[in-house]
Amino acid sequence: MTPVRLKKIFNRFLPHAPIALIVFLGGVLRFLNLNWDRGYLFHPDEINVLTAIHNIQIPGQLDPKFYAYNGFPFYLDRLILQVLQRITGDAGWVTSFSQMNLVARSVSAIFSTLTVALIYLLVKRLLDKNSALLSAALAAFTPALIQYAHYGVTESLMLFLLLGMVWASLRLFQNNSSGNWVLMSVFSGLAIGTKTTAVSFLIIPFLTWALMIRKTEWRAAIIHGCAFVVQTGLIAFISSPYSVLNLTGFLASMNYEQGVATGSFPVPYTMQFIGTVPYWFQFKNLLWQTSPLVAVVGILGVTVGWYKSRDKVLIKKILPWLAFSVIYFIYVGRWLTKFDRYMLPVIPIIIFGCAWAYFRLTRIKKFSLAANWMAGVLLAVSILWTAAYMNVYIAPSTRITASDWIYQNAPAGSVLLGEHWDYDLPVSRPSGNPGQYNLVVMKNYDPDTPQKVEDMASNLAEGDYLILGSRRLSGSIPRAPLQYPVTSKYYDKLFRGELGYQLVNVTAVYPQLGPWVINDDSTEETFQVYDHPVIKIFKNTGHLSREQLLQILENI
After folding, report:
1. Long-range contacts of 515-519 (CB under 8 A, 24+ apart)
2. For the whole prediction, is pTM greater than 0.85?
3. Domain residues of the chain, as ranges?
4. In this predicted model, what pLDDT tens digit does every residue of 384-395 receive, in sequence order?
């Protein structure tokens, strides 16, 4: 290749180098240590997904027999796994959950990386290149997006499809063609085929259609609208047929999930939300999910940008995306259940708000320097915040580290007390296996009956070690003292050492930057308990009798 040819290629690539670098760095962060749990499958939702994928055989058996998520991600992952099996001859790709999970996580990481690029394209079309680069960089260094890229669940795919719908909306504003409506149908149908909650995403195409109807001949508008509905429904059905073919099972699953989300169907793992303040709770967690500065500046940027902008064309283009984000936040934010993942769909508009604030300041001459400083500080804080968070994936999993400690310190034959609704410890390691211990489960979520209290006393008297595998139970049960008058106080007595058990080991990995450790125990539970739970191990040093313990528990 001649020097002249090389120079032309270099000059053509050079303008795209910044976004290429940003997407590359975002990808590195998302793929870094995808096998963070060493194949032990510490994320319960991943096990459900893998079971559904395992139930499928393309083309013969397509019913995943699991309907909390819709079928598209299952079929996508299964197809990739079967191709890998065919290429390598390794049956483990479709039988081993640990191998299957690596593929599911890789798919999440790929779509999360593509989301960084898609945010760049969206903001470039709406604002300008510099604002787009800022938004892409902020997305690349967003802890919540990185975290869910490390899970083989649906959130990264859902976010990509949501932004694909926004992209199709912008294309329609530029060219109201049948082709662009087909593009919108593809993104919309696949989103619904991924998860039923994506029905709320349809706010975007319907608002786009409504805003364009005045400038469209009414017959063409009706044809486009009807065609979109039919195409979207067809794509949703093709990508998740058993949501319809097994309608009874699907509706039962949806009723359960909706009951859990709204609190009408109480389950133990939502007790952490008792007494939490709607909207304020989600906002506080957005500070962790993005960074304190990005969340605040992004919300202010969207709010001020909306009220102060005189560009009616820009406002019109942004309206479907913004309206969805606001309506979604208002609706979902009022639910009792406030898992972090519920707020992922609003993070892109927050990132856009930061870019919009920067863009508006650059258009005011006396504030142009301030705009650059603001962008620099936003980016610096995001990079440092994410650098601290990545310690979670650089350090060994706390469950593995705690298991090694148990094998080194607890003699074989010891009675280990664990808690139900949590991950059993220790896991099998080269240094030992759980079979060398007598494992007893403390059923602390069960109602506080006299029989339960007696069982608690018996278990505590017989136990040698008590393992709290996370803060799941100890952090939620005390929030319901009327429902758990004994168990809620039990944890207080335990931590005070009044039950004869002494805390002998705490295994924790926190976001950390050099000597500065950021304690995230106050975050929403799922931000911590899947990939970096704090594990506390107590040793029975007091050896109180069953009668002594029963007296303490009954007198609480």
Report:
1. 516/388, 518/388
2. yes
3. 3-264+275-392, 398-554
4. 999 999 999 999
